[in-house]
Amino acid sequence: MQRQRNGLQKLAGLLEIPQDIVMDLPRITMLGNKQLLVENHKGIIEYTPSLVRIKLSQGELIVKGSGLTLGNFQAEQILIEGTVREIQYDT
Amino acid sequence: MILNLTNYMSGTVRVCVRGAMPEKFINLCIAQHIFLWGITKIDDDFYVSMRLTDFFRIRPIARISRVQIHAISHKGLPFLLKKVKRRKMLLLGAIMCFLMLNVMASYVWFVDVIGLKTLPSSRVKEIAYENGLRPGISKDSIMAKQIEKEILVSMPEVAWVGVTLSGTRAVIEVVEKTMPKQEDKAPANIVALKDGVITEYIVLAGQGTVKKGDTVKKGDILVKGIVPEQVMTNELGQPIINNNVPQVIKANGIIKARIWYEGYGEAELSTPVHQRTGKREMAVLVDIGSNQLSLKRAYLDPNASFEHEVVYKKLPFWRNSGITVESTINIYHEVNTLWVEKTLEEARDEARSKALASVQSIIPETAHVISRNSEVLQTSETNLVRVKVSIETIEEIGQSVIISNQ
To answer: Is A73 within 8 Å of B37 when comparing Cβ atoms?
Structure first.
């Protein structure tokens, strides 16, 4: 499994294909500490105004902050608005 | 922007999600392509916004995730339409307002005539009225070309006319012809306009009565408006006395004369100048009907001197038809009086320019000025400088005066 993944990564690098498509990785876009857009996620695990846990293909993404609100204007996207203080990967 | 617009068109609902697994509800919604936004959590309750069409699809999802859904608020076009459906007269009123505006704007309400100099506008308006251009007529029925033609035909003094519509106002623009001056052919004498000594004397028509170098007074006849008599002599050399009444004609000629003008001016060596100190007092009076009401009184220092200014305010008459409401504002500017001293030369120049100005106004523009003299008059007053100016000109003094039939 791990070897297959490494091979895919090499192939993607060779063909210059964006790796997030090949490897099913999340694409995270941040706008200062105001907005956080997560694409290619697998759902929400937990949500409170100070903590958001998002399930990824491997592990989860933990966003800490204050006054966080969620929204999605397109499928497979999550937009977190509020004041983001901390982002953490948990595998 | 477009997203907001589509949201508005389809209508949005904000719901309260309460139950065991609200996160699961959100995940399922995302999986079903139900767009959610503004998700917040207040005391274990989730508040979510969604579209109205999606609101009817979440029932199975709510059942699976075991949550209860309560709609809290809603906005958007579908809800507005529902409200309007209940208040049909409101919509009717809006439509009526729009229609009225449209209908009223398709009529002419004012007719204006511009560009007239000597002709009365009432005549132009009358012709326009007869040809259908009158207040209260539909714009479509106005035949501008025909009205223009009609005005041109019935008013020969008009060179060009244009009828244009701007909004509810019809403007008739008129350009008048400049007619050549009609020369008066009535028999006339040439009479002196001013006192003077004649320097040039050319008679073109009529009988001369004076000669070059003569001094004439104002009102003297210079050229008589009659056909000059030929003195006939018989064979003995005696003049034949002609008893015929001489034929009267319009006299014509070029008569120039030397004319003297005198002007006088004076200037003070020290003059008072009033300067505003910036301090001012205001008194406000309001007239309502026949009653006068003092809103503010002015408290003036009895020792100071003031400049008085009156501002008079009145509402336009159409807002003031019932009881007249007018206000009078008296403004008192406090002034300081300063004495400005002038040198003798300055005062003399000022007096001279005053004197010249007083003369200049009576000298015609065509006059040819020969000499200009000024002299300072000796006076007993020490504060005054008096200057006399004399100007000598040569100018046309003939004036046609119609011979009255007696």
So the answer is: yes
Provide the 3-class DSSP secondary structure of residue B278.
strand
As a whole number of angstroms, the distance between CA B325 and CA B328 comes to: 10
Clarify whether residues B169 and B136 are in a common domain.
yes
**How does DSSP assign B298-326, residue by residue?**
----TTSEEEEEEEEEE--GGGSSSS-EE
Which of B103-107, B191-195, B299-303 has the least mean pLDDT? B299-303
**d(CA A25, nearest CA chain B) in Å:** 18
Question: Which residue, among B257, B201, B202, has the nearest Cα to B370 in the 3D structure?
Answer: B257
DSSP state of B43: T
Tell me the chain A residues in contact with residue B38 when contact means C-beta distances shorter than 8 Å.
69, 71
Contact indicator for B16, B46 with CB cutoff of 8 Å: yes
pLDDT digits (tens, 9 = 90+) for A37-76: 998 888 888 888 899 999 988 889 999 999 999 887 677 7
Beta-strand runs (E) in A1-91 = 27-31, 35-39, 44-48, 51-55, 60-72, 77-90
Instruction: Provide the CA B81 distance to its chain's centre, in angstroms.
Output: 51
**B170 and B192 both lie in a single domain:** no
Supply φ then ψ for residue B301, to 5 degrees.
-75, 120
| Tokens (6 digits) for B148 | 């223009």
Average predicted confidence (pLDDT) for chain B? 84
Token couple for B336: 């300081």
Q: Which two tokens stand for residue B44?
A: 């274990």
Compute φ and ψ for B249, nearest 5 degrees.
-135, 180
Residue B258, strand partner residues: B197, B394
Of the residues B151, B176, B201, which one is the last residue of a structural domain? B176
Q: Indicate whether this model's pTM tops 0.80.
A: no
Residue B308 structure tokens: 């008085």
Q: What is the CATH number of the domain that holds B157?
A: 3.10.20.310
What would the pLDDT profile of B283-299 be if each residue is shown by its tens digit? 888 888 778 888 888 77
Q: Note whether A44 contacts B36, CB cutoff 8 Å.
A: no
Asked, for residue B29, whether it belongs to a domain, the answer is yes
For B59, the 3-state DSSP assignment is helix
Distance CA B221, CA B28 (A): 120
| Pairwise CA distance, residues B166 & B156, whole Å | 27
Residue B383 lies in a domain: no
Tell whether A76 is within 8 A of chain B (Cβ). Answer: yes
